[in-house]
Amino acid sequence: MKSIKKIFAGLGLIAAMTCNANAALITQDLIEVALDGSTGVIGSITINTDNALVDPVHGTGEVLSFVSFNFLGYDIPVDDSIFFQAIFDTNNIYAGIEFLDFDIDFSLPGWAFQGYFDAFDNPDFNYFTVFDSGSADLLFVNGLALGQASVVSEPATLAMFGLMLGLLGMRRKMQK
Fold this sequence. Notes:
The chain is of the alpha+beta class.
């Protein structure tokens, strides 16, 4: 009987972990790709996959807002986003963002900037631009790439895992 209870407890723990397996934060570096092929990190972006619009046919998730966005040394407020779209593979969130499109009007330095990245398209079409938001003059344009994805499980999943371990430990103490 004890072994059956242990099996059910183990299965319950596994089920609790897999229910939220895809709920995570994805963070990736934004990388500038110059015409001469040189690269450098120009920022980072974090999205929450928990709020994604899921397309079960294509196995993708679409996020229309970011958790954090750092660009050229500035932390961009969500309110400064005119348009934002990030798409990721729901079956492999560790692959990171596969498609990114953004348009930001950042009031602090007076810049507006846009970016486009598609992992499956010609890399020459991936770009970012920086404009003077007052005069609309183009200040800068270059290629855009994304760095290695860093995926962090949602805190609720980790809390549930810790709670289950604590309950199992407490039950074991009570049995002794």
